[in-house]
């Protein structure tokens, strides 16, 4: 299975993804073990309100704007992009921590967007989240035991204090903490240890899927490596499927089986980590990778860097056609007029949304040029 | 790029002790280094290693009531640490420009960019408002901010992180300082914006011969910009030398551990990353002997736990800079 290379243009609410013309399905050598999480034409649009007393909606902020993405069972998918590209919102939308405004998300065959409260609770057990800041994501007034055992109580996974206590000890050991620390408070731990507590909490419900949103960003370099190793070990041990969201391309390259690159609310390239990491086909990915400094002075001095001009456009005012065209060094005729679709290019399983590899996509319609007013 | 004349900044045996609720903290313990004109010195270390405090101390930016600073720091021969406050105020700005990590907190949110720049320009020298504004626009253009005239009337929140950091750099460069101190100046920025900022600083440096002290934990950035590297751990310099020596032939077990812990962009991660076990020591509770020994994977010398190793020359050096490390470990596994 690969990501369906269909028109990633804006879907109106409720329009099925299959209504969009699909381009040829590429061959793939990605291990076929089934898709666990799948997004089709996923949109999260936020209304932009003007500052006056009437609070009228004056525009739309397209945080996630037509994302097609499949996450395979047992893989680690790395999601990279600059700040503001919508990668965290996408991760939240997959778990319905924010409500998608369009498109669909399926989790193990179930449409997540239509779940009721009970269904959502089950999803919360099967899909966990590790947050960025271990200082902010743990309740300072609760002990580690209380934090880690809460999911057990909520989901009725262990009855009785004794059993829960045993499970907490098991979880702490799993993440490399001494079970004896269970009755301590978060402030008694270092950042890396707190992140381990956060991981233990996320694992309490025995999830199939874990979203790690910048889970190592606030840690020191030597501690980052410890947590990266832990995540990889846990994944193998427990057969987890991971979405690893990070702006750190080296870390993503290290942990991921596949990498997806986001720009302005859209996945613009996806493929096996080796292909995307070493031979990217989308100019944005090329620029992003070339900007990552490597700790080798001789290499750094001779390296050709693609320095992008300007800043990322606002997601409230997305350029027409290819959204990268305002910063792209290779821009040509079709770029402003055709919104490029993900198409197979390069290595098997590699997809890029770029006209340099053949003009595929949806022509810009008049209504797309101006942000549509919200209902 | 080493200058033969006297260095621009010469720090000698800098020590900072802070009074904390948990007792005195030895945050910086005998730091010595020199920065030549046009040269970039990178100070590398993890959080709590004392790298930020060491530069705050240079500019007298630590609260006097809690901080005791000793040693010497000569900027063009003049000691910053013994300078009267009035003279220090004159030096900050024209002599030394400073850029901090978070551009949102180093800019005043209720003043326009223009007012903040003009204030900085007029604080040192008799300039009319109009002329200062003119100069401010010129500076913003120099740091590559699009439409500088309009940017002057904007507030910090109206600019992106990269643009804000460029404004902070423009303020720091307003008087063509001979020394620029950047404390994690690009850490909060995306890699693409970081590349723009690094290019910008390198350009200004070659144009004005500015000496740069770049504090960071990102060894990739160090490899790209530094001439000389200083690795800090537990408030001490544990290794220094030319960028090639320190990054390609690290001699201290800590530097080796730091480099080994970095995921490599060029290869996939089938292997585990090397880790440095444990966490850095608290400055209130530094271990006796070598500061790194409780975490050191190769400790074997009996002196490790009792005697502090001196910063001594290790092996051949390149680029005319001695390569020194403070360790009892003679040879470890190569990187």
TrEMBL record, chain A:
Keywords, sorted A to Z: ATP-binding, Nucleotide-binding, Transport
One GO MF term: ATP binding
SMART domains, alphabetized: AAA
InterPro entries: AAA+_ATPase (IPR003593), ABC_transp_ATP-bind (IPR050319), ABC_transporter-like_ATP-bd (IPR003439), ABC_transporter-like_CS (IPR017871), Oligopep_ABC_C (IPR013563), P-loop_NTPase (IPR027417)
Residue segments, region Disordered: 1-28
Record bears the keyword Amino-acid biosynthesis: no
Positions of the ABC transporter domain: 48-289
Coiled-coil regions listed in the entry: none
Entry-linked Gene3D superfamilies: P-loop containing nucleotide triphosphate hydrolases (3.40.50.300)
CDD domains referenced in this protein's UniProt entry, alphabetically: ABC_NikE_OppD_transporters (cd03257)
A Pfam family the protein falls into: ABC_tran
One GO process term, biological-process aspect: transmembrane transport
Biased composition (Low complexity): 15-28
Family that this chain belongs to: Belongs to the ABC transporter superfamily.
PANTHER family for the chain: D,D-DIPEPTIDE TRANSPORT ATP-BINDING PROTEIN DDPF-RELATED (PTHR43776:SF7), TRANSPORT ATP-BINDING PROTEIN (PTHR43776)
Name the record gives this protein: Peptide/nickel transport system ATP-binding protein
Organism (species): Geodermatophilus obscurus
TrEMBL record, chain B:
One Pfam family in the UniProt entry: ABC_tran
Subcellular location: Cell membrane
Domain ABC transporter: 9-259
Keywords: ATP-binding, Cell membrane, Membrane, Nucleotide-binding, Transport
Primary localization: membrane
Topology of the protein relative to the lipid bilayer: Peripheral membrane protein
One CC-aspect GO term: plasma membrane
A GO term, aspect molecular function: ATP binding
Database matches in InterPro entries: AAA+_ATPase, ABC_Ni/Peptide_Import, ABC_transporter-like_ATP-bd, ABC_transporter-like_CS, Oligopep_ABC_C, P-loop_NTPase
GO biological process: peptide transport
Family: Belongs to the ABC transporter superfamily.
Protein name as it appears in the record: Peptide/nickel transport system ATP-binding protein
Phylogenetic lineage: Bacteria, Bacillati, Actinomycetota, Actinomycetes, Geodermatophilales
């Amino acid at each position: 299975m690969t990501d369906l290379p269909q028109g990633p243009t804006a879907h109106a609410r409720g329009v099925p993804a299959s209504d969009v013309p699909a381009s040829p399905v590429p061959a793939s050598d990605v291990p076929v073990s089934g898709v666990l999480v799948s997004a089709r034409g996923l949109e999260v649009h936020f209304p932009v309100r003007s500052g006056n007393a009437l609070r009228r909606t004056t525009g739309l902020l397209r945080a996630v704007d037509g994302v097609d993405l499949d996450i395979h069972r047992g893989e680690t998918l790395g999601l990279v992009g600059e700040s503001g590209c919508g990668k965290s919102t996408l991760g939240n939308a997959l778990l319905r921590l924010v409500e998608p405004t369009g498109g669909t998300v399926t989790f193990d065959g179930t449409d997540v967007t239509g779940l009721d409260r009970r269904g959502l609770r089950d999803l919360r057990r099967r899909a966990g989240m590790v947050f960025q800041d271990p200082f902010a994501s743990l309740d300072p007034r609760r002990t580690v035991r209380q934090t880690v055992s809460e999911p057990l109580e909520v989901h009725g996974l262990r009855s009785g204090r004794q059993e829960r206590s045993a499970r907490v000890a098991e979880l702490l050991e799993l993440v490399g903490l001494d079970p004896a620390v269970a009755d301590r408070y978060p402030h008694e731990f270092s950042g890396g240890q707190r992140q381990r507590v956060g991981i233990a909490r996320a694992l309490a419900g025995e999830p199939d899927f874990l979203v790690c949103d910048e889970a190592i960003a606030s840690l020191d370099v030597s501690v980052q490596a410890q947590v990266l190793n832990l995540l990889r070990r846990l994944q193998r041990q427990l057969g987890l499927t991971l979405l690893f969201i990070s702006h750190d391309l080296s870390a993503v390259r290290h942990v991921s089986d596949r990498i997806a690159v986001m720009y302005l609310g859209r996945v613009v390239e996806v493929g096996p980590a080796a292909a995307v990491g070493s031979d990217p086909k989308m100019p944005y990915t090329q620029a992003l990778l070339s900007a990552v400094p490597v700790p080798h002075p001789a290499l750094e001095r001779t390296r050709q860097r693609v320095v992008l001009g300007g800043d990322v456009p606002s997601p409230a005012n997305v350029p027409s056609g290819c959204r990268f065209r305002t910063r792209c060094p290779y821009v040509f005729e079709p770029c402003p007029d055709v919104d490029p679709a993900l198409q197979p290019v390069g290595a098997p399983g590699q997809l890029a949304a770029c006209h340099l590899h053949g003009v595929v996509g949806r022509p810009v319609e008049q209504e797309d040029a101006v942000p549509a007013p919200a209902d | 790029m080493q200058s033969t004349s006297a260095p621009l900044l010469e720090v000698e045996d800098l020590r900072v002790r802070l009074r904390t609720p948990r007792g005195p903290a030895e945050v910086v313990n005998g730091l010595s280094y020199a920065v030549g004109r046009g040269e970039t010195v990178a100070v590398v270390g993890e959080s709590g290693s004392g790298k930020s405090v060491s530069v705050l101390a240079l500019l007298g930016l630590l609260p006097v009531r809690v901080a005791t600073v000793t040693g010497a720091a000569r900027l063009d021969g003049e000691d910053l640490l013994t300078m009267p406050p009035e003279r220090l105020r004159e030096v900050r700005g024209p002599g030394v420009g400073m850029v901090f990590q978070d551009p949102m907190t180093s800019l005043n949110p209720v003043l326009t960019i223009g007012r903040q720049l003009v204030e900085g320009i007029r604080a040192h020298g008799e300039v009319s408002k109009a002329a200062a504004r003119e100069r401010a626009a010129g500076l913003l253009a120099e740091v590559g901010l699009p439409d500088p005239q309009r940017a002057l009337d904007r507030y910090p929140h109206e600019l992106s992180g990269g643009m804000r950091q460029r404004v902070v750099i423009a303020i720091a460069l307003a008087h063509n300082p001979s020394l620029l101190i950047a404390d994690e100046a690009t850490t909060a920025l995306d890699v693409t914006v970081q590349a723009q900022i690094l290019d910008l600083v390198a350009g200004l440096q070659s144009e004005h011969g500015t000496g740069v002290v770049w504090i960071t934990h990102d060894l990739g950035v160090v490899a790209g910009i530094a001439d000389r590297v200083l690795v800090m751990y537990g408030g001490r310099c544990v290794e220094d030398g030319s960028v090639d020596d320190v990054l390609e032939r690290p001699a201290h077990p800590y530097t080796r551990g730091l480099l080994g812990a970095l995921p490599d962009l060029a290869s996939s991660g089938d292997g585990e990353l090397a880790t440095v076990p444990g966490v850095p020591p608290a400055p209130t509770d530094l271990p006796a002997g070598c500061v790194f020994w409780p975490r050191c994977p190769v400790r074997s010398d009996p002196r490790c736990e009792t005697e502090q190793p001196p910063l001594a020359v290790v092996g051949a050096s390149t680029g005319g800079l001695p390569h020194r490390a403070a360790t009892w470990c003679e040879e470890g596994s190569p990187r």
